[in-house]
Amino acid sequence: MKMLATLLITLGIVAFAYPSVGYKTQEDVVNLGTVPVTTEKSHSLPLPPIAGAIALASGIGLLVVSTRKN
Predict the structure, then answer these.
(1) Of the candidates 11, 19, 18, which has an alpha carbon nearest to the alpha carbon of residue 54?
(2) Does the chain have fewer CB atoms within 10 Å around its N or its C terminus?
């Protein structure tokens, strides 16, 4: 239970530190027989701040509950 709490707290902090996650994909533009022409596109996946806040609060709550049980 403490490990899950630590993971949620870490994810919450990371979500606040990095508000978006970027990744790249390759797409075929033209296929000239045996010579493919590709391009690389950058994409961004935004992380809402509320998701980070929920993960952080849940992790802290789980940590408090697991500490009180012991």
Answers:
(1) 11
(2) C
Residue 37: what residue type?
Answer: V
Measure the CA–CA gap between 58 and 7, rounded to whole angstroms: 10
The rounded distance, in Å, linking the Cα atoms of 25 and 20 is 16
Q: At 38, list the tokens.
A: 């590709």
Q: Beta-carbon neighbour count of residue 61 at 10 Å?
A: 12
**3-class state of residue 33 by DSSP:** coil
Strand partners, 47: none
Residue 64 confidence (pLDDT): 92
CB 43 within 8 A of CB 24: yes
Mean pLDDT, each 10-residue run in order, the chain (70 residues): 92 90 91 86 91 93 86
